[in-house]
Queue: 3 jobs
Job 1
Amino acid sequence: MWGISYPGFFAAHGLIDSHPALKAVSPQAPMGDVGNGDDGYHNGAFHLAANFRFYSGFRPRKGDAQRPQPALGIETGTMDAYDFFLRMGPISNANEQYLKHESAFWDDTIQHTAYDAYWQARAQAPYMKNVTPAVMWVGGWFDAEDLAGPLKLFHALEKNGATAPDTLVMGPWRHGGWARDPGDTLGNLNFKANTSEYFQENIELPFFVQNLKGKGNGLKATADSGVPKAIMFETGRNEWHRFDAWPPKNSEVRTLYFDGDGKLSWDAPAATGFDEYPSDPNKPVPSTGELAPGMGMPADYMTFDQRFAAARPDVLTYETEPLDHDVTIAGPITPVLRVSTSGTDSDFIVKLIDVYPDDYPNPDPNVKGVYMGGYQQLVRGEPFRGKFRNSMSKPDPFTPGKPEKIDFWMPDVLHTFRSGHRIMVQIQSSWFPLVDRNPQQFLDIPNARPADFQKAMERVYRGGADGSHLRVIVME
């Protein structure tokens, strides 16, 4: 069994209490947990643009004998998704203006804004047990839809115990890009090789030939080594690697601390303090500095230049000095923030960014006219809806001005920040229209009205025992 996206989700289902005739399964870009990490919600924040596009096309049958109805014909009236969703107003307007209550998927999704029993019952990870076939999980580092799925399901299977070899494969791809693109470029990034062909010929085909026909040495790195636990493409250096553990054994947890004057350091700052910024949900921070057409986000937004955001007063920026040696981060990223808000709820978006040197060469030929000197490449970014800081299923309001701790998981990376580059972290409280707007008041957001969306002042505290920081795994 194998499949990509929804078919990958179905293939993963086939692993649970596996049938004895099933010998090899490759779930590729599967949803692992729609309620927390994949298509629907990320840490309580609703992925608005993607879900509106999905659910305008997913319509229920009207009687068993009929084919599914065609997608809803929605006229956006603009090529700018930011403008379209801002004009649409609160999520409560979506049905009245466009969906007309014809999408049960949309209605179910926005009725369950917390990680409640509805979502918990649909998460695959807790049920990934009694798995007997060989498994190859496949995902893309830049998958805007189901990046978390392969990672969560791989770790769940590792925890629960697999009786046959299981391997995680991650490449420099968008959603399903290994099957539809050459994989040599994405957005403004160039990976210097046809990574999709490499995957198909050297990883995917050998996996099935070995496990279905007993021929070849499958995914073995060498004649006398075991099946690799992970086969990963390292962005930054543009190299494939095979590991016998993931995260790699030759790695250690290190901490990047937020410091005064926008500094990011491996050393804990002695002085305490805070940085603050305004957040206005009626003028949210855009998800991209480029035009996002129609109702969706560009599939390659996860590679985009973040300089547009660094220039905004409602975005905090912290960065290191230019690195004097290569730094490779391998594994999940854990933001630990100490924050406060003048409202009773707020989002906090964390973005890890690779800042290129000012003399970095432009592409040749430079068809897009992009300037790569000083490019701020998004490496990983995730939102967190603050009211879920204590429990993803039971939201709590903030007390205005009271510092609170937020600690969450961001999906894995394998990325090398090259010598001469800088490591940057950006913090903001909106990411629109990728994520729906938070009114910054403690209420049920799908029922919010325009007057509920209020400005707030956000603070990020640094220094001392409780100062904000980022935990990363550095490969030696």
Note: The chain has a mean pLDDT of 92.
Job 2
Amino acid sequence: MKVSKFLSLVACISAIGVAADVMAQARPEVLVKQRQAAMTLQGKYYAPIRAMAQGRAPYDAAVVARNAGYLDSLTRMAWDGFNPTTRELKSGTLPAAYSDAAKFKESQDQLIADAAKLLLLTKGGDEAAIKGQILAMDKACSGCHEVFRERQ
């Protein structure tokens, strides 16, 4: 009797573990929505500082520092949403993001590094260096979009 209860308990625990794994895997359409949300937020916090770097808006060091902090986190968020299970979904992502994964990863890493450098520069307060780094991020963003995103 004790053995059968023990085996039943082991079976239940195993079933719960398998169910937890299945539930933890996001559906492809959810991954697409999440990565698009992260990219939308990147745009929200990047656009104002880009305008500042281009001289189209007055420079505000406090806004740049705050947005750089957000971008340092946001630029790390979208990439796990480019799971191969999302390949066939309509999202604006070109097939090259999946077929040339190494180059896509390189583009991601560049943006992440540029955002980290921007955050670091904001702590020093050198406006010219900060503006230059903002524009470097612009190159990283547009370079990736040219190769891996449909034109909009």
Note: The CA atoms of residues 119 and 133 lie 10 Å apart.
Job 3
Amino acid sequence: MIKKAFLSGAALAGLLTAPMAFAADLPSRKSPPAYAPPEPIFTWTGFYVGANQGLGGGVLDANVSLAGAGVLSNTQTTNRASGFLAGGEAGYDYQFSNNVVLGVETDMQWSDIQASHQATTWSSTGAAGSGNANIRNNLNWFGTTRLRFGYSFGRLLPYITGGVAYGEVAANGEQFVGGALFNGSATQTTVGWAAGAGLEYALSDNLSVRAEYIYIQLPGVNGPASGLTPPPFPPLTGSFSTGSFGAHLIRTGLNWKFGGPGSLSPNSALSLVTAPPTLDWTGFYVGVSGGYGGDRADAVVNLASALPAAASSTQTQNHSSGFLAGGQLGYNRQLSNHVVVGLETDAQWSGITASHQASSGPALTDIGNGLDWFGTTRARLGWASGSTLTYVTGGVAYGEVSARGLQISGGLFSGSATQTKAGWTIGGGVEYALSKNLSLKAEYLYVDFGGVSGSAYGVAPPPVQPFVGSFSTGHFGANVTRIGLNWRFCGQPAAPVMAKY
């Protein structure tokens, strides 16, 4: 009986468990996990258009040759050039599988780059001792068509570039001295070459920011020149010509690439401004920077002689330009998801100078003003969005300003001074975080310093007594465009923004 009961219980258990085992062997009715497509791989391939602005400058030489009945005259001058530029570009890039990027780009630029020298001299000895000079060389517009060769580090593209350059160069000059008037002008479109390098970073799949250095060189221009002299001297005729017009350009810009994976929606530009910061900008940082600067420098020289009683005053204006390089350190504090305040100080070596050299027969003129070094200490107020920090900045500036002048014309006249000056600065820029510690920035600053002053003297042939007096310069200012890299210590990703339900 016991055996039968055990067998009956086992059979019942088998009947109860059999359906469960059978059900376990059936295929599952649960939905498979959703398929997540891989993130599109960023590529630089595609057509693009963009806009840019910057600063340029260089050095330009000119030569004037005149001749009349038994009269020969030759004048050679050298002047600094500087000015702003702005324009647009269009191009196409192709990225190969090995990350090499090849492309072609063309651009057109409005240009304010000019070399000029204006001088007015008044003398109590009469019109024969007075004079006026106005010499100008302008790059009115230019364009380039260049190949680009780069290597893609993901969204960072360093590249070199080179090709042809073309533009309109104008030169003209008038000089009135000793009762004689000399004049000449020419405007020509010329073709030359361009070469440079740059960095471009993709803020999104379509929008990129760049910083670029380009050197362009265009042939000089030439034209007729004439001179009207008081009787009994004959009129003079001849020609003038300029040397090659070379300009160093530092410019920044934005490009929009069409198509490609992950094309942005129409409100992408707004999202780039309002997107939550992806890192906290709070922390100390150090960095290096370099760029180009220039503006205009004015000077006044007053001289007097006791016997015979004589006095003279000379006013001059010259353009300044030159490279600069240095370093900076500072501290940022991110107050909220977007607002950033900070303090930065920097020190820069400067090659920014204004100069005019001219020689005409036995006469020689050499005038120069320079910003040998400078530094700034500034507050920064910025807006953080994504990995971008856009900011305005201002504060104090300080630097060493030098001025010199030498003229040989019926005597020797000279003066010089070097002084450390304090002034002010204001500007703005954009900084982009390449990683939680490393960032790339492009910045514009205007720095303004008080002028310098010193004593001047003149020595003339006997019986004229020595001249004594003073010279002074106007405010020495410079428009500075520079790019740099910053390393921030203890950088951290931004705290996540909590969603509200």
Note: The helical segments are 2-25, 268-274.
